[in-house]
Amino acid sequence: xxxxxxxxxxxxxxxxxxxxxxxxxxxxxxxxxxxxxxxxxxxxxxxxxxxxxxxxxxxxxxxxxxxxxxxxxxxxxxxxxxxxxxxxxxxxxxxxxxxxxxxxxxxxxxxxxxxxxxxxxxxxxxxxxxxxxxxxxxxxxxxxxxxxxxxxxxxxxxxxxxxxxxxxxxxxxxxxxxxxxxxxxxxxxxxxxx
Length: 194
Hints:
Distance between the termini: 41 Å
Mean pLDDT: 94
Number of strands: 2
Number of helices: 9
Radius of gyration: 18 Å
Shape: globular
Helix content: 55-70%
Order of helices and strands: HHHHHHEEHHH
Structural class: mainly alpha
Low-confidence stretches: none
Largest sheet: 2 strands, antiparallel
Strand order of the largest sheet: 1-2
């Protein structure tokens, strides 16, 4: 059987891994993660499909690689409750609330009400000192605060994805990924509007 030739987008997992590594050494690289927020939404608005999730998501590819090729997954089905609308939309709402809280903390630093907190919050609970990743920079502390908050969001979602990858199938994160849920909502609206 002939092996299918890999396309350029089959290697986007390298970008996801590079993003996490760069943010470890310089927190300002966290701003690049906004691409993972806007590109899926733009693609779903323009095409009415989940092409980003199915083809271009580097994080999903990374989970497939680690869980599939490297065998770090138990390869069990995701529980039904995790696939259900209540959990997926509930997680999306929770995720958006945490995102808004991150924006609020950023605004407080921009407004001078709060000082820069050089920490990454993992799983919305554990504050990890991350001062080594913040080098003397000419940008406003609010810009840096956003980077810490955004990297916290990206690292937390990666850790959740890794946990579900190990417990279930490699791309189990995709079942309840907030971006996947949002793009699915956009696609449904587009289909109804046609």
